[in-house]
Amino acid sequence: LQDSLDALLQRHAALRLSIAAVDDRLVQQVAWSLPDIVTLSCHDLPDETAVVAWAQAEADRPFRPGSEPLL
Q: Cα separation of 47 and 34, whole Å?
């Protein structure tokens, strides 16, 4: 699955975009190094409550422009 995701990211630059502030302006930056973009992880969650809690924690995680892709 990771290989498929890497191939998709390699093919589509829009999935590798991040936003950075340069001279007080926001600019788009394309990541070229695939290992730094997205790594799949598996979570063995015991029930739906744990899944909802994990999803909420991910949704609450702050977005850091320039340090991670928009994907």
A: 33
Distance separating alpha carbons of residues 48 and 34, to the nearest angstrom? 32
Using DSSP's 3-state secondary structure scheme, residue 27 falls into: strand
At 19-61, the pLDDT tens digits run 888 898 989 888 776 665 667 778 889 999 999 999 999 899 8
Query: How far is Cα 16 from Cα 71, in angstroms, rounded to an integer?
Result: 7
Phi, psi of 25 (to 5 degrees): -125, 145
The size of the chain, in residues, is 71
Our CA angle for 36, 59, 43, nearest 5°, is: 65
pTM tops 0.70, yes or no = no
> How many Å apart are CA 67 and CA 29, to the nearest integer?
10
